[in-house]
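Proteins fold reproducibly. Look at a sample protein:
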Amino acid sequence: MSETLLELNKLTKTFGNKKAVRGLSLKLHAGEIYGFLGPNGAGKTTTIRMIMDFIRPTSGAVTLFGGKGANQLAEKKQDIGYLSADKAIVQGQLSLQSILVFISLSIISLLIGYAVFIKRDISV
């Protein structure tokens, strides 16, 4: 079996009395590709934000790269990128440059949607 890159164990996130993610468990091994599909409000973005450590789960656990030591994990996290389809312009910073960046990110978002990229050779 190949290295476990990501493991979600009974991952749950609540906002007040709303459960955004309910007991999600999965393992992603080297060479595998997963996609998060579902309607708005299904918990896709919330799950990715917990994986990226932008928000903390209410319960459950996210384990990256087999739970290696803190130093190794910090190095490995440099190999992860996240591009959200959320779009925002910082108030008071509307310039030609920010508009071009916004348009560029919008085009990229349309092409690839929500994505988590792990720099790994996944060729067979």
Summary: The longest strand covers residues 4-15.
